[in-house]
Amino acid sequence: MLDNFQRKINYLRVSVTDRCNFRCVYCMPPEGVKFTPHQEILSLEEISRVVDAASDIGITKVRITGGEPLVRKNILDLFRYISANPCIDDISLTTNGVLFADMAEDLKKSGLNRVNFSLDSLNPETFREVTRVGNFPDVWRGINKALELNLHPVKLNVVAVRGVNDQEFGDFARLSRELPLHIRFIELMPIGECNPWAVGNFIKAEEILQRLQEEFGPLETKIKITGSGPAQYYRLPGAKGTIGVITAMSNHFCHSCNRLRLTANGQLRPCLYGKQEFDLKTALRSGAGRQELADLIAKAIRYKPSQHHMEEGWTDRRVMSQIGG
């Protein structure tokens, strides 16, 4: 379905939980946040009904997110439900990776096509500081398992934070040379916990690329990989993987945005940074049928704004994990 700005909306990001087993410094306070009561979270069956209705108006790609999606009980059932829909041709997952290795084979059997890992440091000590509780070897085992199972492209999402991981950009780049991994440096967005200090710790994608070219020389450009989305990809000479930058702040990509976001408590957001949400949970629990749900989703698409306004600051009380990564 086309929105009012002639963008083809074919991608739905589904948050299955607001709970997370990490406490990343730019996402949550140390004590965590107050989680949504279980009865207020969409059931897996309700989520599958939303996906089916969305597929009727052109959604073909679904990404499962959180919080940390793999802490959701019976999550494999949702992958099975979605993979049974012939209109959905791509099912992906964003995870912190700590639980992934032990679930990977079952996830693939249940319909998972590819996976993104959130990984902000290759240094175990820095990794623990950023996540507050994370164990790097567990995540690294998950990444290798994804490669072993050919869940390509395997992407690593790296939020670039000055004074935290900016000395590791070259290490991540070298990793793409050695392994078929796609490293994506993401500009820090002023959302939730990171809002007060995003400006002082912000690094433009332009600076990241400049540093990499100073260290490695010219980068190969105009690279396309599956599920490229908003990232611009580059490659070191002879590398097995790629380097990407996501310029959410310095050069927004709203003109090509193709996504909607479903929060764990059943609110459909046309724009991550927008204030508008459409209440699908009430419709689901009031007996709405597939066509009625599809009409609501189509309405949300018509209200999708032309672009975000992150520069105006974050006014939502929720953190990223409560909206959906």
TrEMBL record:
Keyword flag Ribonucleoprotein: no
Binding site for S-adenosyl-L-methionine: 26, 67, 118, 189
Gene Ontology terms, MF aspect: 4 iron, 4 sulfur cluster binding; cyclic pyranopterin monophosphate synthase activity; GTP 3',8'-cyclase activity; GTP binding; metal ion binding; S-adenosyl-L-methionine binding
Cofactors, names only: [4Fe-4S] cluster
Entries under PANTHER family matching the protein: MOLYBDENUM COFACTOR BIOSYNTHESIS PROTEIN 1 (PTHR22960:SF0), MOLYBDOPTERIN COFACTOR SYNTHESIS PROTEIN A (PTHR22960)
Functional description taken from the UniProt entry: Catalyzes the cyclization of GTP to (8S)-3',8-cyclo-7,8-dihydroguanosine 5'-triphosphate.
Protein name: GTP 3',8-cyclase
Name of the gene encoding the protein in the UniProt record: moaA
